[in-house]
Amino acid sequence: MPHDHHDHPHHDAPPDPMTERVRRLEAAMVAKGLVDPAAIDAIIETYAEKVGPKNGAAVVARAWTDPDFADWLRRDATAAIASMGYAGRQGEHMQAVFNTPREHNLVVCTLCSCYPWPVLGLPPVWYKSPAYRSRAVLEPRSVLAEFGLELPPGTRIRVWDSTAELRYLVVPMRPEGTEGMDAGALAALVTREAMIGTGLPKVPKRVPAGVPS
């Protein structure tokens, strides 16, 4: 199963068929005056820089540091997330699912690639692949192992099927050793994969005793 964070193609490698198809379609539409290249660039920049995993990381970090917000997120994720300014297309209806020591959540869209754009940006290539969409449901533990995530045998894996009507955000467990860290520092530990369920947050760097941070 292809994982975009594991693949390292050579710069001179030919583009995959879908990329080439999209490129040709875009060129044809631009040539006919149907789309403005500047508008395409603006859309790409919006989802790459302004709408993306940084937003979701901020939501998770706030849930880690604000019990009242975490409770609101559990009860009404759509409203809680919108209160931070993260709302819009593909994020109209949200549900937050919280990992615990006994249960790990994993999100997939078995039909296509439904994904919460306002908090996670555009979906990664592997999320849209037929292999992930089918195997995440049939053999989630094996899929997680391929991402490098080995869960204890007793941990229950719960798979959530994202749809056009409802999209999910995984709230991972707060890493140990983060006591005293503010929301900004905590957000830097939250990865996109952790909010989909295929990974965990980063572990904070430990400063040896007697060494100034």
Spatial order of the strands in the main sheet? 1-4
As for the CATH topology of the largest domain, it is Nitrile Hydratase, Chain A
Mean pLDDT: 86
Named CATH architecture of the largest domain: Alpha-Beta Complex
Number of helices: 11
For the CA atoms, what is the radius of gyration? 19 Å
Number of separate structural domains: 2
Major sheet characteristics: 2 strands, parallel
For this structure, what is the CATH homologous superfamily of the largest domain?
Nitrile hydratase alpha /Thiocyanate hydrolase gamma
Total strand segments: 4
Query: What's the shape?
Result: globular
Identify low-pLDDT runs. 1-13, 207-213
CATH class wording of the largest domain: Alpha Beta
Strand percent estimate: 5-15%
> Which series of helices and strands comes N to C?
HHHHHEEHHHHEEHH
Relative helix content: 40-55%
Termini Cα gap: 40 Å
Structural class call reads: mainly alpha
